[in-house]
């Protein structure tokens, strides 16, 4: 593997930022979808705690999966992709 050019380093930096932002957005959507009923309906404290835990775990998993997917896709791109 040769030295990376400035353009390669910039592309990696942008891709990491995109992965992070899109991961945060996807995680927020999942958290809102799972925990949303607790905000709308009057649920018991136990159900509220379970929804909070489930939403947090699922949001964290979606965040990690999104970042992994974006960065692996970037790593597998052709070297001469025209960009």
TrEMBL record:
Transmembrane regions:
12-35, 47-67
Question: InterPro entries per the record?
Answer: DUF6332
Q: Which UniProt keywords apply?
A: Membrane, Transmembrane, Transmembrane helix
**Keyword Transmembrane appears in the UniProt entry:** yes
| Highest taxon, organism lineage | Bacteria
The protein in question is named Uncharacterized protein
Q: Which organism is it from?
A: Streptomyces vinaceus
